[in-house]
Amino acid sequence: MTARPPLVLTVAGSDSGGGAGIQADLKTMLALGVHGMSVLTAVTAQNSRGVHGAWELPEDAVRAQYRAVVDDIGVQAVKTGMLASAVLVETVADLLAGTTAATGVPVVVDPVGVSKHGDPLLAASALDAVRTRLLPTATVATPNLDEVAQLTGVVVEDEDGMRRAAGAILAYGPRWALIKGGHLPSGEEAVDLLTDGSEELWLRAPRHDNRHTHGTGCALASAVASGLAKGLTVPEAVRQAKAYVTGAIAAGFALGGGIGPVDHAWRLR
């Protein structure tokens, strides 16, 4: 009998264009050798030019999907993405708290606030629930600089700002913060900072001129969750994820008339 791969669950929205969301998560998980499972929280009408509509699923549907997977199949890591509303944030936070209390599985929280195109994917009324309910469940929180500003008010312009941002995120309760500095205004490197408040790991990679970077954040968080499901430490999982995403960005391709996706399958080609 073939050995079963590690099990990773993504709780996120659907991107009909296939570049981000559930679709990006499952592609990343497949590329990294884990079995991806999904809880759909919202449906978007989305393409390379932007999000043209979004509809969240009922709380009962989200809860039923989660219970169906976790109670029967089990899970070795969970990743969250687009949760859309305060009700869904609170629902998912309750589910995660129960799972981590029972099994101790790691949770990667990508606090998705806006799409690559600048379209809002989280209601303003949900921000407090993310801060007080969702982030405390996280083994690793992976905000980008826009999400840091949205959640903490810290505006990051340099690496010292990334340290301040990490401290502000950690104050809400995650064990580790991975601050994604890809949007820093200057520098030739894409710089990320992983810290638990005492240990720091700076991850640096050359910036690519490729504009087709849709799905970067989803891929990174899913890659971290995949590494944790394999038993890697948080720093090891983040190093692996950074290497994977750097390659995916370099291989990103045009799709439609706007911003194309990173190539989630670049390692398989």
Looking at this protein, list some descriptive labels.
single chain, 269 residues, alpha/beta, UDP-N-acetylmuramoyl-L-alanine:D-glutamate ligase, nine-stranded mixed β-sheet, 9 strands, 38% helix, globular
Can you describe what's shown?
This is Bifunctional hydroxymethylpyrimidine kinase/phosphomethylpyrimidine kinase. Pathway: Cofactor biosynthesis; thiamine diphosphate biosynthesis; 4-amino-2-methyl-5-diphosphomethylpyrimidine from 5-amino-1-(5-phospho-D-ribosyl)imidazole: step 3/3. It holds the Pfam family Phos_pyr_kin. With 269 residues, the chain is of the alpha/beta class. The chain has one domain (7-268): UDP-N-acetylmuramoyl-L-alanine:D-glutamate ligase (3-Layer(aba) Sandwich). The chain has eight helices and nine strands. It has helices spanning 21-31, 59-72, 86-103, 127-134, 145-152, 159-170, 216-229, 234-250, and strands spanning 7-15, 35-47, 50-56, 77-80, 107-109, 140-141, 176-180, 189-195, 200-206. Strands 3-2-1-4-5-6-7-8-9 form a nine-stranded mixed sheet, sandwiched between helices. Helix 1 (21-31) packs across helix 7, helix 2 runs parallel beside helix 3 (86-103) and helix 5 crosses helix 6 (159-170). The longest helix has 18 residues, at 86-103. It is globular. The two termini are 27 Å apart. The mean pLDDT is 93.
Put the structure in a nutshell:
This protein is of the alpha/beta class and 269 residues long. It is built from eight helices and nine strands. The protein has a single domain (7-268), classed as UDP-N-acetylmuramoyl-L-alanine:D-glutamate ligase (3-Layer(aba) Sandwich), CATH 3.40.1190.20.
